[in-house]
Design goal:
Blueprint lengths: L2 E9 L2 E10 L4 E6 L8 H12 L2 E11 L6 E3 L1 H17 L11 H5 L5 E3 L4 H74 L7 H15 L2 H18 L6 H21 L3 H21 L4
Parallel strand pairs: 3-4
Antiparallel strand pairs: 1-2, 2-4, 5-6
Helix pairs in contact: 1-4, 4-5, 4-6, 4-8, 6-7, 7-8
């Protein structure tokens, strides 16, 4: 399911802003984008997202802002010189005229290793940054889940409407089924009566064939099972736990019963109702893929 959440938190001199976005996906896949100094915490961030979100393609964006605290910085001349040589070599290899693309200090400063703090403890900085990121992440996930929950309610309402529509078509099938069987039996009697004389017509055999025809056309069992599956689907939508897989299974069972009803229809009205049920089912199956 789709969603977005944003959280901000300050710890010491560090302020963290975390944005979390999710789109539909069968599994939980989390990508983290942020400062390289926080790469060590990526597994913890991914684990927390998977714990709360269960499914979906999730992107976490981290941004850190640190107040200037009077720290002194030192230029690493060796690294700056190496980066400049690399850029010169790249420009020469690409055949770019120096006057068209001069190398500036801004280009070199894009590499953070050029400047190092003389009084900043890297481990302490990482610890402080993580203390800022954790609450910001929780706030972002809370906002995202609220949006997903709102979307889930709308999705559940849509699915319930489609279930009601299928059940309406099913009730028409149930009402039509016995009438259609009686009509088919009478057609069989009339046709055999025209083809055979009374002397050659075996009444017992005729009644047996008529009974077999009724059994072949009967869809009572399929209708009962489909009603049961529809009721289970409604019950699942009311539960708080993850039900996506159960809904997907029930949708498959809908398909099985509707296909059997269609194959036994032998009647334009029932066949038409089966087609309409299939149309609603296809929409349900698409929507179920978005349910956790």
């Amino acid at each position: 399911m789709t969603g977005f959440g944003r959280g901000t938190h300050r710890a010491g001199a560090t302020e963290a802003t975390v944005e979390v976005r999710s789109v539909n996906g069968r599994f939980a896949e989390v990508s983290v984008r942020g400062p390289r100094s926080l790469n060590a915490f990526d597994p913890a961030i991914q684990a927390r997202c998977k714990e709360l979100l269960i499914r979906g393609n999730v992107t976490v964006n981290l941004n850190l802002q640190r107040e200037a605290g009077g720290a002194e910085y030192r230029v690493d001349g060796d690294k700056a010189e190496a980066i400049a040589r690399m850029m010169e070599q790249l420009r020469s290899t690409a055949g770019i005229d120096p006057s068209d693309s001069p190398i500036t200090i801004d280009h070199i400063l894009r590499y953070p290793e050029v400047l190092t703090s003389t009084d900043l403890n890297l481990e302490a900085e990482q610890s402080e940054a993580w203390e800022a990121v954790k609450p910001a992440l929780e706030s972002a996930l809370e906002g995202l889940n609220a949006m997903r929950e709102q979307e889930g309610k709308a999705l559940a309402s849509d699915l319930l409407e489609r279930i009601d529509t299928i059940e309406g078509h099913l009730e028409v099938v149930e009402a039509r089924s016995p009438v259609r069987v009686t009509e088919a039996q009478q057609k069989l009697r009339d046709r055999l009566g025209e083809l055979l004389s009374d002397e050659r017509l075996n009444q017992d055999r005729l009644e047996t064939e008529i009974a077999l025809l009724a059994d072949k056309l009967d869809v009572t069992e399929e209708c009962v099972r489909l009603h049961s599956h529809l009721a289970q689907f409604r019950d699942a939508l009311r539960e708080e736990e993850a039900v996506g897989r159960r809904l997907n299974f029930l949708a498959q069972e809908f398909n099985r019963e509707i296909n059997t009803i269609a194959s036994k229809a032998n009647d334009s009205e029932m066949a038409q109702r089966a087609v309409r049920m299939k149309e609603e089912l296809e929409k349900i199956r698409e929507q179920v893929q978005n349910v956790v």
